[in-house]
Amino acid sequence: MTGFAIETAGLSKRFRAQMAVDGIDLAVPSGSVFGFLGPNGSGKTTTIRMLLGLVAASSGSARVLGTDMPRGVGSVLPRVGALVEGPAFLPFLSGAANLRRFDAADRSAGGRSRPARVADALDRVGLSHAADKKVHAYSLGMKQRLGLANALLVPRDLLVLDEPTNGLDPQGTREVRNLIRSLAGDGTTVFVSSHLLAEVEQICTHVGVMRAGRLVTQGTLDDFRSTGAVSVRLQTPDVADARAVLARLGLTVDAPAGTPARAGGPADATRLVTARLDATPPEAVVAALVAAGVRVRGFEAAHASLEQRFVELTGEGFDVVQ
Amino acid sequence: MRDQSSRTQNSTASRTFSRWIPAIVAPIVIGVGVILVPMQATAAVDLPDKTPAELVQFAAESPAQPLSGTIEQRSELGLPDLSGLTGALGGAGGDGSSAPAAASSADLEQLLSLALGSHTARVYLDGPNARLQVLDPLAERNVYRNADGVWIYDSAEKAATHITVDQAAVEALKAELQTGHADAGAGAEMPTPEAMLDQALARLDESTAVTVGTDALVAGRAAYELVLTPRDSGTLVGQISVAIDGQTGTALAASVTARGADTPAFSIAFTDVTFAAPDPAVFAFTPPAGTAVTEKPIPVPTAAELQQAKAEAGSGDAGSVDSAAKPVLHGTGWTTVVELPAGALGAPASGPLDTVTQPVDGGRVLTTSLVTVLFTSDGRAFAGAVDVATLQAAASAPAASSGR
Amino acid sequence: MRAERRGSTAALFGSELLTLFRRRRTVALLAALALIPVLIGVAIRLAGDAGSGRGPAFLDQITNNGLFVGVTAIIVAIPLFLPLTIGVVAGDTIAGEASHGTLRYLLIAPAGRLRLLAVKYLSAGVFCLAASLTVVVVGTLVGWALFPIGPVTLLSGSTVSVGEGLLRLLGIAAYVCVSLLGLSAIGLFLSTLTTVPVGAMAATAILAVVAQIIGALPQLDWLHPWLFSEHWLGFADLLRDPVQWASFADNALLQAGYILVFGALACGRFLTKDILS
Ligand SMILES: Nc1ncnc2c1ncn2[C@@H]1O[C@H](COP(=O)(O)OP(=O)(O)OP(=O)(O)O)[C@@H](O)[C@H]1O
Ligand SMILES: [Mg+2]
């Protein structure tokens, strides 16, 4: 499929006085794994609810798989698997019975193949053994897995996963990662919101970042990272010399003094010096350092981490905006 | 893009609105239905015009039709709780707690509430057979009239009363009267029914304006309305209206409105009626197992007894012991006051009667919107469709006391 | 395509019924209803006839004919117990799903909002039938076990065979079921207003009580024909001879009016509602 799996124009949602989502223009390319990032309360889940027709937009429009939402709910949603704000099941039914119920709600899913579909989905998330256990006896991670199984009941063109690895054990997290990779390999578009930036970094091809209801950036992961400055991390005992050389080269050196790599070490202990590399090529920096007799014990020039970029875009403050 | 977003906003709003349309339309549809259906029921109907006399004759001459239907009886007489009253009267009438007295008290209560209460009932008529089926909540009262006599059955009391008339005695009486009075009858000129009716209407006209009201639909049938308005302003009765089926001449509704009131104090009307012989099974009654059955044969007087009674009535024999308990009439027409001498009711019942009456000069009074009853301190009772003052006047009139 | 669609709506309805009746709470509600005729039967069996005129109508008939246990139980259950259970089930329809969060997953399955609402209402209707049948059937079985069974004396004083008596009992169950459909529609609407099912349940049950209180006040008699509880005791018309179907029809019409109005309100609310739970 070509074009965009999700496209919004000026999509907004107002809760009384508060703009939970404020005029976002999302563009999620078909076949991409799109990481949808943002601090708590920035409007990710609200956006997802609008995309799935659960919530009516206050203004703006959304197209999912080429169809206007929420008008196309009936025709589009069978092709969309979703996990919205955590899994939810009737606690007094077994996992399998819950899946059968959701599957029966889907008009396009035939009844004859229902047991096979449910068994398949449970198998995919490793819940076959707990299929007949009542959901109230499920652990947090088991519920999360069951939620994923529900999203995978039928082959989907688009998966919308709101924090899919929440509460999963390391194996589960890795499974989900592999699952998303394999689904994406089959051409399924995955729209995943997550706070685990390491996860996102590993699986996503694209990212979008929300802040206080606005989409502050979106694009490919590589673009996202390369827009940030490259920095050098130098490990040396000669901190003062190194700082002088770097300053002479026109680099912005971080922090007033080099951070000791190991606190309380001997005088020639290795310390870390970081600086922002602007236009200067890294090899020139190394050459200058060596020429000045600085003992270079480690040198790395790299783009800022996703976390740094994220914090740059969404602010340092810990308090939830709004 | 601004364009698109505002357009989608509009369409969202209109979709939101469109989803509330059924919720707006449903009550309107129901409201219109509720208004239209009765309007249809009261839609103008036009029957061939009749004069009051023609209408009365039409009703009188139409043969009784087999029918089944539902009647609604609504009574807003302003009567207090009847059970206390009838209990008091019935108890006072008998000599204490003997079984017949209790039974007659229950019967009186039953008949009063049948006649004056508010209820819905089914009526079945077919020649000599008739049935009144009063549909009480979770209970039922029935009056059956069939070849077997009259049965009154009350499901709540699980009691049945069987009223029988000795058919043979009635036949004998008829035969005897015919032979015995053949000569007397031959002497008098038999008036034609028309003449009798005219005479009756003429007499009625003195006290009452008889008019034909507007035709209306009653129980879905076009009906004439006969309106009787008392000319005498001394009566509490403002108007009596009777609806007469334009096709069969059967009375379909009747209502009595108090003077000055807008709504009838008492009304009885068919809400649906079918003029076809009902299934004969509806008239059959056998008391179910476990029912207390009271047999009440009605004595048929012989011709001689009848003759004697007639003679007594004619002579107005004040000395007769029986006549002490006989009612006396004061006045004529609508303001007629009935006096029950002290013997008829026994001592003025205290207790229950007090709760439903108010003290006035000379006794206690029971007022309803149509009828007033005065119980004088000396044990007499006066009743009439008049105000208290008229009753008090009758009570203090010398004629009344001379009657005793 | 059409056939397939209709088939799947039946599947959703079936799954809804399965969910409803497999739920322990539903079973407990029905068991509580079944307890009413059991208690009546056992009490009368142990204590003997209460004597005519005391207790609910038909109570004094039970010792003669066990078939009246069911009728008596219906009379006892109709003012409070039946509306209470209907309130629980109807009030839970949408609000219960919302509180569990399963509403959003049903809607993105997608169940379709109108379709889901219809299926929810239908299953509440089935519960109404199950509830009234439970009272009548358990009552009949209890009566059969504890008392003699024989031809049934109707209110009119005539007597019908046991077979016809049973048929009329089924008719009463149908009448009571119809009587409760209006209340179910109110419960459904209230259920779309909240995500707290207990609120909708309580509101529905309270409305049922309020309607009956208003129905008992003669000062408000202009309002009486409009009360959904107006004909609740009219099932006695099935125990008359001949059967008075008029009240069955009046009741059905009244309930249909309630279904129409509150169904439309529920649609308006549910189709425009933001699902935020
Ligand atoms: N039902 C609601 N009523 C009012 N405001 C709401 C409601 N739901 C969400 N909001 C507000 O909308 C904003 C966005 O919430 P949303 O759930 O979309 O955030 P999120 O990005 O998913 O956060 P998180 O990372 O914690 O899941 C928040 O400020 C929240 O307070
Ligand atoms: Mg969220």
Automatic annotation (TrEMBL), chain A:
Under the heading SUPFAM superfamilies, the entry gives:
P-loop containing nucleoside triphosphate hydrolases
Where on the tree of life does the source sit, at the highest rank?
A: Bacteria
Q: Which Gene3D superfamilies match?
A: P-loop containing nucleotide triphosphate hydrolases
GO molecular function annotations of the record: ATP binding
Where would one find the signal peptide in this protein? none
Protein's recorded name: Multidrug ABC transporter ATP-binding protein
A Pfam family that the UniProt record links to this protein: ABC_tran
Q: Does the keyword Transport apply?
A: yes
Q: Which organism is it from?
A: Microterricola pindariensis
**What's the family?**
Belongs to the ABC transporter superfamily.
Q: Does the keyword Coiled coil apply?
A: no
Tell me where in this chain the ABC transporter domain is found: 6-237
Automatic annotation (TrEMBL), chain B:
**Keyword set for this entry?**
Membrane, Transmembrane, Transmembrane helix
Q: Does the keyword Transmembrane apply?
A: yes
Keyword NADP in annotation: no
Write the signal peptide boundaries.
none
Q: Which domain of life is it from?
A: Bacteria
Alphabetized InterPro entries for the sequence: LolA/LolB/LppX, Sporulation_related
- The membrane-spanning stretches of this chain are 20-39
- What is the protein name for this chain? MucB/RseB N-terminal domain-containing protein
Provide the species name. Answer: Microterricola pindariensis
Automatic annotation (TrEMBL), chain C:
Q: What is this protein called?
A: ABC transporter permease
State the superkingdom.
Bacteria
Which residues are listed as membrane-spanning?
27-47, 67-90, 121-147, 167-191, 198-217, 252-271
Q: Which UniProt keywords apply?
A: Membrane, Transmembrane, Transmembrane helix
Coiled-coil residue spans = none
Q: What Pfam families would the database entry show? A: ABC2_membrane_4
